[in-house]
Amino acid sequence: MTDNKTVYSRSEAFEASEDNHCNKTDNPTIGEIIEARFSRRQVLKGSLGVSVMAGMAATGGNLLFPKPVQADESTFSFDEIEAGVTQDHAVADGYSADILLRWGDPILPGAPEFDPENQTAEAQAAQFGYNNDFLGFIPLTENADRGLLVVNHEYTNEELMFSGLGRQDRDKKFADTTIDHVNIEMMAHGGTVVEIALGDKGWEVVNDSKYNRRITAETEMLISGPCAGHDRMKTSYSPDGKMVRGMFNNCAGGVTPWGTWLAAEENVNGYFWNKDARDGHPEERNLKRMGAPGQWYSWGKFHDRFDIAKEPNELNRFGWVVEIDPRDPTSTPKKRTALGRFKHEGAETIINTDGRLVVYMGDDQRFDYVYKFVSDMQVDTENPENNIDLLDSGVLSVARFNESGTVDWMPLVYGTGPLTEENDFASQADVLIETRRAADLLGATQMDRPEDVQPNKQTGSVYVLLTNNTKRKDDQITASSPRAENAFGHIIEIRPEGGDHAIASAAWEILVTCGDPTANVGASFNPETTENGWFGMPDNCAIDSAGRLWIATDGNSEKKTGRTDGVWSMETEGKLRGTSRHFYRCPVGAELCGPTFTPDDTTLFVANQHPADGSSFDEPSTRWPDFDDNMPPRPSVVAITKDDGGKIG
Ligand code: FEO
Ligand code: CA
Ligand code: CA
């Protein structure tokens, strides 16, 4: 990280930062547990482990786990594509993958055309942001041929955005970064709401739509829920602790049943500055548990609020789930503090059998946790306006994955168990501001970087995507993290009995451990999976209206897996359970984010983040999607449709 001559990839920097093991607790890594469920030796012995685990998958695993529906034949009908590394993207035969939105495309009225050599903060604030991540589609018409696309812009790669700059070295305090670079970066973060319509030429942006909106790192937002107005939320900008400027590092998210957008703030620690001020800081313990200040960006060099000495509480105002009403472009986004503060990957919702809302969330850091929130109130499915502040009251819980194949959800409620004054919690606001430390005290299970946690509305199952954890040691192996040096990740399936997602305990099972099944890495894909069909590093996912699972990956490369990231379909039921198939391939260097279907499954939207990652603006490894010598690689949203107009897959 300190060699200034190397062009570092920003995503490698993020990866490296996640090596910082912020969780210093010795919460049960239930090392013994694995012996009882899968013998660790069998898992690690490769082919034997594969057959044991594939066998468990095919039979539905342990006795607690209800037998899935039996189906002998695949329901996926597309011909799989070749896994590999190419400058262009690719999709299965009979499908088209069309570019819908690129970094720099005009979004607001008066926005200039993208001019990469002369970019300004003002232009960027009215154009599509960088590194598109979560995508949500909110239909505006009955047949969903018009709708709002909501997009998170997670982070920026200065080495790919600016000519002549290269990757800046944080230890040299970003010597070549100017305030103009920083202000462009701040406007390239946040999110976009854009109206899109299906016409003769496929999906197109409605340029003059009243809904079109940019949200940036400066957009005024409300702090809502138990932490609003708390002393630890007060700053010079917001003396009453109720307002905050902006959101950033919004990774995945969700769309609520009432049509609002949840944008989850993930690696917010990286935007804060001044490591020397940490020891003795009033929030020292809290800063350390969040890995802050990370100083991955130079915003603190030019804007005092990102300096932890100058504005000691500012970081407490980030790391939340933000709710935004895309139908009202004048609405003020709200940070929903009842959902906890950590490195939120996503926030996927389901209406429970009792009518309450359940939000599933992962904390994407090595050895961190899986959470869920259950609202106090029932969702009003008839009158969306009655759900306006539904996310402000409810119970946040953290998961403990037991040896017996059950997962216990442990409530994070002030005044209960260890969450008292004895451990420096004086209110529910304190518990939520330091959600991670509260979860440590409850003995939550340390996981391998929880990314999307996705409920399946058709089957009632919940998929937990665990992307990797190369820092897990042999003696840290657990039932829910069965591999040391887990380079390729795995997927856990939770099946709450009767589809009751508010339940305190549910059965869980590993759906698949990832990586090359022919290598000796303990991968457990179903033997029906081809050499193109396996993948590493599951990250985000989508579920189509038939309840089928589609996986997006982050971290595959020539070096690691001989393939780029992309989309793979995955069988979850019957004899083929654990079989995956390659549907879409990213251009080199890109990570695949945000997969989401239209309600009729005829379009799959995907987001390609940081194409050409690992290279630079001046010498990019691809110029996707324009392939124009005057254009840099541009993160872009792609609309995938079937050429005959039918359902995807
Ligand atoms: Fe932003 Fe956890 O990926
Ligand atoms: Ca992600
Ligand atoms: Ca990721």
SSE diagram, text form:
Blueprint: H1 10-17, H2 33-37, H3 40-44, H4 47-59, E1 90-91, E2 95-102, H5 121-126, E3 132-139, E4 146-153, H6 158-161, H7 179-188, E5 190-199, E6 202-205, E7 213-215, E8 220-224, E9 243-245, E10 250-255, E11 261-265, H8 284-289, H9 299-302, E12 321-324, E13 334-336, E14 348-351, E15 356-362, E16 370-378, E17 394-401, E18 406-411, H10 428-433, H11 435-442, E19 450-455, E20 462-466, E21 490-495, E22 505-513, E23 538-543, E24 549-553, E25 566-570, E26 580-585, E27 591-597, E28 603-609, E29 636-642
Walkthrough of the structure:
This protein is α+β, with helices and mostly antiparallel strands and 649 residues long. The protein has a single domain (10-266, 319-642), classed as Neuraminidase. The chain has eleven helices and 29 strands. The protein has helices spanning 10-17, 33-37, 40-44, 47-59, 121-126, 158-161, 179-188, 284-289, 299-302, 428-433, 435-442, and strands at residues 90-91, 95-102, 132-139, 146-153, 190-199, 202-205, 213-215, 220-224, 243-245, 250-255, 261-265, 321-324, 334-336, 348-351, 356-362, 370-378, 394-401, 406-411, 450-455, 462-466, 490-495, 505-513, 538-543, 549-553, 566-570, 580-585, 591-597, 603-609, 636-642. The chain has a nine-stranded antiparallel sheet with strand order 14-15-16-17-18-22-21-20-19, covered by helices on one side. A six-stranded mixed sheet has the order 9-8-13-12-11-10, with no helix packed on it. β23 (538-543) and β24 (549-553) form a beta hairpin. The longest helix is centred in the first third of the chain and has 13 residues, at 47-59. The protein is globular, with a radius of gyration of 23 Å. The model is unreliable at 1-7 and 29-63 (pLDDT under 50). MU-OXO-diiron (FEO) binds at residues 154, 251, 266, 345, 364, 451.
